[in-house]
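Researcher: Good morning. I'm working through a list of sequences from a screen, and I'd like to move beyond sequence-only analysis. For each chain I'm collecting a predicted structure so we can compare shapes side by side. This is the next one on the list. No need for commentary yet; just the structure.
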Amino acid sequence: MSERPPVTIAIPLLNEARLLSGLLETLRAQTWPREAMQVIFVDGGSEDGTRAILRSALTDFPNALLLDNPHRLAAAGLNRALARAQGAFFLRLDARSRPASDYVERCVAHLQEGAWAGVAGPQIAVGLSDGGRAIALAINHPLGAGGPSYRRAWAPTESDTLYLGAYPTAKLREIGGWDASFAANEDYELNLRLREAGGRLLVAPDIRIEYVARDALRDLARQYARYGAWRVVTWRKHPRAMRPRHLAPALWSAALVMSLLAWPFSPWPLAVVLLPYLLGVTLAALHLSARHGWRLFPRVWTAFPAMHLAWAAGFWRRALLLTDH
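Model: Good morning. Structure tokens for this chain:
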């Protein structure tokens, strides 16, 4: 690529010392010239050594900044970075992301086509431990986190949202950046407003980026409970934003509860609701474990209901509240 416009890479952080070094390695390996990258780290008050790692890394990037994020939420931190952005294009990363060495170059190439308000690669989950690898396998499977295009695009595909994403900086400023009240689902909400403004979003498989999954089921459950809760907030703000795949865990969990209540009268409703689900989860876990190692089977199997039930619990808890705060 002959033209190398400046880009801003924004990275919101909070207590990410364990994962931060892996991200920094991928930034140092980018084919994009460092002098054309403005890297902005936005820290929400880390207490685990994150800031010490960041201060050391600032010397690796000539245009790097370290900003404070007193609100601690990623959306608020991204807006602080957007206010200081000098690049023509704005790329979001986080400590769990592992972009390929040509990530910036390929994002910019697609954005320079002029047809897209945002671009990204498919989100491919990976793990750093057996627990993380098992969770990653479940996330990548259609039964786990569903089959949205931002996870499973085998060819360039228009999408309703992006994993992290790269955008023309001007377009982000036109729509006011991220909604700083969102503690999760902030990217979907941002991308929804971009599409409502006439923008189109591209998931391109030549843009390669990995996502480091959590290692423990309890952390996975907390993550998906938060996703479910904030999906309700997004739905209330944008009533047309809900898709059938978003509602599937909530509807299945409601059917499960009703069938349990009907158990004293008949076991058949519970059998109809539960047995096909257990069969599907077992077949998926067997298939994945046969390919990636039988030692992973128990963790893969339990990752599926952990995601589904936690998402549904977060959804119903927030849906039954009278307020979103």
